[in-house]
Amino acid sequence: MFEKLKISLIKAPIIKKGEYNYFVHPITDGIPLVEPSVLEEVADGISKFGNMDVDKIVCVESMGIHIATALSIKTGIPFVVVRKRAYGLDGEVPVHQITGYSHGELYINGLQKGDRVILVDDVVSTGGTMIAVLNALKKIGVEVVDVMAVVEKGTGKEIVKRETGFTVKSLVLVNVVNGRVEIVGSASE
Questions:
Q1: Which of 90, 117, 147, 185 counts the highest number of beta carbons within 10 A?
Q2: How far is CA 123 from the centre of its chain?
Q3: Domain coordinates in residue numbering, the chain
């Protein structure tokens, strides 16, 4: 399972951002080209391994948007985008995030206390973005039913669990070794 995703990850180029090994991939970066068959495989995988008994899908701008769009079309569940800019709408919740290679503000709109959601993101690596968003969702009073990442790299999954109590499920587990992506496992194994 996830053969197209795995092959595309193995072919992904690696760039360094300081000491961080960053892989450049269509699902995680939107470049070089997002193949519909890989995106469909991702949406199928999340809908199969994630708990989709939710009111809303929550994703983080920007690389969660295409994942949430495909998942929304597949399931008929609407989605909310955690944005990188403020709109000043009533109920907007600011979130400060720190990742392995950046930091900044995010903003949540369109969620209310009691909403049942699944959080989907492209990668869990350092856990910084997920931790910030999950803590904000708790403050809002949203019920996070499940948390899914397409790709798991590094120890972010364990950090998210320790910091928030939430378990992150992933479709594919990777490591970067000698400047290349290696597939370590997947949800189907």
A1: 147
A2: 5
A3: 3-183
